[in-house]
Amino acid sequence: MGKPTRFQTANVLIHRYLGLLLAVFLIIIAVTGSIIAWYDDLERSFNAPMRVVQPQPQGWTVRDALRIRAKLEAQDPRSHVFSLQFPQQPDQSLFSRVMPAIDPASGQPFPLDYDEVFANPYTGERLGQRMIGQPSVKGSGLFSFLYYLHYALLFPLGLGILLIGILGLAWALESLIGLYLTLPPKLKPAKPGVRQRSFLQRWSTSWKLSKGAPPARRLLDLHRASGLWLWPLLLVFAVTGFALNLGGMYAGAVNLFADYTHFQERPPVPALAEPLIDPPVTWFQAADLGQRYFEEQARAHRFTLKQPAAIEYRRDLGVYFYLMHTSRDLLDGQGNPTETDSPATAATIAIDARSGRFLGLQLPTGQHGANTVTSWLMALHVTAIGGRPWQVAVSLIGLVVATLCATGLLLWWRRRKMRQPVARARRT
User: Which of 198, 267, 297, 374 lies 20 to 30 angstroms, CA to CA, from 253?
Assistant: First the structure.
């Protein structure tokens, strides 16, 4: 075999030191990801007072939910309930996201110590509130803290999201370099009459654990083989980690090659000079318009409507987003639609809050190829499809990623220890 080229040597160094930079972060992200693959189940079990309600025969309507929203704001005038996610099961609570209201006297946001509120969709009772990411060992906050830790670590939200997005890109690069380094080196010309092993035969050793090898070799085999066997999934999680945290950059990159719609990160209208606090179009009117526009779009694009999913108002844009589950949704293992707060979810219609004008439709599948692919990739990341088997698989993948990082650190440490005596000998 030939000696490593400069390019190969450079990639070894990049893989080593980029891996060292990523290792601790990825261990935290992977371990928390293994846990929050079961996020909804854990929340329902350990946070039942806020997550689970007693179903009522009369049911609830969107207008009921909007009245509850107004009630929640009236209970705390410092709050602005900007997003409602409608229950998709009879025993689910009404989940809302909150931001500080604007103090009319100072023009500044009120101080507010929570950003999530849960209510009973049948009675309007306020079941509880919390600040996502606030460290807690209680059932009401423990798993939301782990969720926050997964996508923002211990940093402030904006900085944490930026960092994790950059780490996702770095991890994707690290995965590509790692794959390259498993490829067998180019062979020297063979002597006459000598039959050389094929490329696949030589590469096959990278996929195996060597029997009877010394500990150092077994450690290398474990690091290399586990990464190879799971390489496509590792790349998917790296890319989607970038896309989920830095959706605007992801959308911009994808749009260079294909049409891709992402209303939250690349809105259909520019931001306003000043937030529109009291829009002419009310929440109730927006919901009615959303239902009407969906009926029109369903006929035009040939999809069927299911349950309303969510409604959100962006005061920085002066735009309502009305979300509905449709036949274009991805479904989980039990046939339930995926969650509603990422690009991989329900259909979305944008409505101008000043005029009620229809601004656009975003479908998770069947509208743009890039949206369809992204929806599938996002759904894999957040375990929104595949049911229990995929949740188990994601938990195991998280442990494998932690193992990859740990074995990479051990390999670096062993090499460092071995080189120290040589370095000392050269100095003497």
Answer: 297
Distance CA 292, CA 290 (A): 5
Residues sharing a CB contact under 8 Å with residue 412, sequence separation 6 or more, in sequence order: 16, 19, 20
Give me the pLDDT at residue 331, please.
72
Residue extents of the structural domains in the chain: 47-152, 269-385
Burial group, residue 302, by CB count within 10 angstroms (0-12, 13-18, 19+): exposed
User: Tokens 């030939």 sit at which residue?
Assistant: 2
Place of tokens 């945290």: 245
Rounded CA-CA distance 149/53 in Å is 28
Taking only the tens place, the pLDDT of each residue in 309-368 is 999 999 999 999 999 999 998 876 555 666 545 554 789 999 999 999 999 999 999 999
Counting Cβ atoms within 10 Å, is residue 71 exposed (0-12), middle (13-18) or buried (19+)?
middle
Q: Phi, psi at residue 17, to the nearest 5°?
A: -80, -30
Residue 237's nearest CA partner among 372, 340, 378, 339 is 378
What is 47-152's CATH number? 3.10.450
How many of the other CB atoms lie within 10 Å of CB of 58?
A: 8
What is d(CA 51, CA 365) in angstroms, rounded to the nearest whole number?
29
- Intra-chain end-to-end CA distance of the chain, in Å: 34
Which stretches of 5-61 are DSSP H helices? Answer: 6-36, 39-46, 48-51
Q: In the beta sheet, which residues pair with residue 38?
A: none
The β-bridge partners of 119 are: 94, 126
**Structure tokens that stand for 144 in this block:** 């939301």
Tokens 């990422």 -> residue: 342
Of 24-33, 271-280, 326-335, where does mean pLDDT reach its minimum? 326-335
